[in-house]
Fold this sequence. Notes:
The structure holds 2 protein chains of 2 kinds.
Chain A: E1 4-7, E2 10-13, E3 19-25, E4 31-37, E5 43-51, E6 54-57, E7 65-70, E8 73-78, E9 87-94, E10 106-107, E11 111-115
Parallel strand pairs in A: 2-11
Antiparallel strand pairs in A: 1-3, 3-8, 4-5, 4-9, 5-6, 7-8, 9-10, 9-11
Chain B: E1 9-13, E2 18-23, E3 32-38, E4 45-50, E5 55-56, E6 61-64, E7 70-75, E8 84-91, E9 103-108
Parallel strand pairs in B: 1-9
Antiparallel strand pairs in B: 2-7, 3-4, 3-8, 5-6, 6-7, 8-9
Amino acid sequence: DAGITQSPRHKVTETGTPVTLRCHQTENHRYMYWYRQDPGHGLRLIHYSYGVKDTDKGEVSDGYSVSRSKTEDFLLTLESATSSQTSVYFCAISEGQGGLTKNIQYFGAGTRLSVL
Amino acid sequence: DAKTTQPNSMESNEEEPVHLPCNHSTISGTDYIHWYRQLPSQGPEYVIHGLTSNVNNRMASLAIAEDRKSSTLILHRATLRDAAVYYCIRVNAGNMLTFGGGTRLMVKP
């Protein structure tokens, strides 16, 4: 298994509170990604990072911010959680982007977040 | 827009081969075809990928049509542990993975 650790694995919080999810990797991969997955949907990209301090928005970035101060850590923050952000969040890593073998994405086990 | 089309669900019997189809009729010449699968309560995992030629690995085989407008993921002997959602994804340089709905494979004992 790729060395990806997501924390916490489960979290219950209240509407309006800030929440930070952490993704930690031991593979020294350049790219890191945050996805969310909701019932009936495939995974949707929230934000991604292509290096330390280099991040960009994905398909569903509203209400989320990210930070990457070290290669190994990629943080996802919900500044003021809403019930619509109840979801399962997955972190992924890859060496690069594109179709080549080295750019395969490896996923963490996920964080289940409930916003009440 | 996932740009691929897959059946919502398929069933298979245990220990029989499974052919999972994917249509990508608007594929460009430099798009790779990647397959990932997601087991229940887990993150997606890579299965196989290809560009033009058929590919084999320890998990599966990938058959790509000569015109590249479709492909088929082949599991040679389905096991109960292969029950998952299988995603067919077009990938090009600089592209993010765009997950569609995938095919839910059910394996009957």
